[in-house]
Amino acid sequence: MRASARLLAGLGLRLALGLAGFASLAGAAPAVARTLVYCSEGNPESLDPGRVTTTTAMNVTWQMFNTLVEFVPGTTTLRPALAESWTVSDEGRTYDFTLREGVHFHANARFVPSRTLNADDVLFSFLRQWQPDHPYHRVGGDRFGYFDDLGLGRLIQGIERLDARRVRFRLREADATFLPNLAQAFGGILSAEYAEHLAAAGAQEEIARAPIGTGPFRFAGFRPDLTVRYRRFPDYWRPPGADTAGETGPGAGTRPIEGLIFSITPNAAVRLTKLKAGECQVMAFPGPADLDAVRADPDLALLSGEELNVAYLALNTTRPPMTDLRVRRAINLAIDRRAIVEAVYGPAGRLARNPLPPGSWAFHDGLPETPFDRAAAAGLLAEAGFAQGFEIDLWYLPVSRPYNPNGRRVADMIQADLARVGIRARLVTRGWSAYRAALYAGEPTAMLYGWTSDNGDPDNFMNVLLGCQAAAPGGANLARWCDPAYEAAIQAARRTDDRETRTRLYREAQILFRDAAPWVPLAHTVVHVAIRRTVTGFTMDPLGRHLFETVNLEE
């Protein structure tokens, strides 16, 4: 998951757009009563759905954009979205999508759309990611991380406008992951008319600074480190109440929210304080030590759900001494992962064995747990020529994440374990955006990170995080590990929709991963969200999405 530091810096400029008429947190009582404040955990790295690569930023863009197909909230089940239907032909190589009629785009201070959604918008949204010579290909960043790491540039053979409401994607080969991949954030549909308007004014960068989508909320402003603001979009294509997948539906005395604020609050304890004080109504990721306090508060409710996620320590296999397999295996043996899970995650954590979480249908439950064995680790280090150990940099997360609630504490425990076998780890961190930029640039030798699935498919872990395409600079394969046998297995799994064959191939790949040890898998988690009891209609989601379309507030 990567970010553009230049884009983040630019996002703070010229973003007063649409703020007139939007109530502040200290505004008039009627406006406050219908504005929901969500205490989020960090800054979005972009407001462009094609550029976002963290769940933090995806949650920001999900409020504003729709995809052709989408997952039913709380599930990994696909359903129509901006495409009301589709057909697959040519042995899985041709996808024809029929778009909904009458889908409106947002407007802002400098742009009012003259038409509804049509095929030109779909072509613009994907061609800008696919074609290096497209006028918007370099606007807002150097690459489209998800599109690139999924290998869609090679997979797609053509994208065609059949008529105003029909779009055809032609693939070079069948790919079982293509449709669920389109439901990810990068598949958000932008307005081609808005892009043309900005280009005519020489203001192309505004496409990410003042985004225009079709989603349930329209953008109203972003102040880095403070807030992202939205207003409900009155012309949204899905009628209120039509999407009722929430854990608790709207009840008597509730009204749909008209305003939405993401209050950027990196510290979990501060988020909880704000929630208790009523300064926000929903908070992300309460700390494990605070869960009982949330349960005990009569004004609060604690929601939980198993996400498809993994926390890991990536070892950069292109940097000595991580180039030596014996060193990587020694590090795996030297870390007491079970102690980390018990101390940091508590009951919400589960020890990881593989890149895939246990909830994945391709999880290899036959692989034994990697033992904690300092003597064996020391022996491997001596065999590799490091009997006296060595020094490395160990990067730790500066913010709490759903897969890692306390990066510093995890790093401290790893540092202590490695010291006992002679490996002297220097702890390093940076601000969240700079941290991610360094990881994706390949700067660290060892780094803590994690992942939450975007589509529920094993490919989203096995390929995006460990495939050879993703090992390129800027890719999500932070270990920079590329194994031909592993690559052959995961790519073969994409080319068939037979579940039994795919399961076999992914399990073979998990064995190869374990033998090569490019990571130290740490944990999978049950994720929590705390809400005030005035909130209804919020749904926990296995893909880490925090969606507010169906959320209501009691009077």
Structure description:
The chain has 19 helices and 21 strands. With 555 residues, the protein is α+β, with helices and mostly antiparallel strands. The protein has two domains: 5-281 and 534-554, Dipeptide-binding Protein, domain 1; 309-526, Dipeptide-binding Protein, domain 3 (Roll). The strands form four sheets. Strands 1, 8, 9, 11, 12, 13, 14, 15, 16, 17, 18 and 19 form a twelve-stranded mixed sheet that branches. The protein is globular. It starts with a helix and ends with a strand.
In summary, what is this structure?
The protein has helices at residues 5-11, 29-33, 55-62, 119-130, 145-149, 152-155, 178-182, 192-200, 206-209, 268-277, 291-296, 325-334, 337-345, 374-383, 407-419, 432-440, 459-462, 484-494, 499-516; strands spanning 35-40, 69-71, 78-80, 83-89, 94-99, 156-163, 166-171, 217-223, 227-232, 254-256, 259-264, 282-284, 300-306, 309-315, 349-351, 390-395, 423-428, 446-452, 519-532, 535-536, 552-554. The chain has 555 residues and is an alpha+beta fold. The strands form four sheets. Strands 1, 8, 9, 11, 12, 13, 14, 15, 16, 17, 18 and 19 form a twelve-stranded mixed beta sheet that branches. It has a four-stranded antiparallel beta sheet with strand order 4-5-7-6.
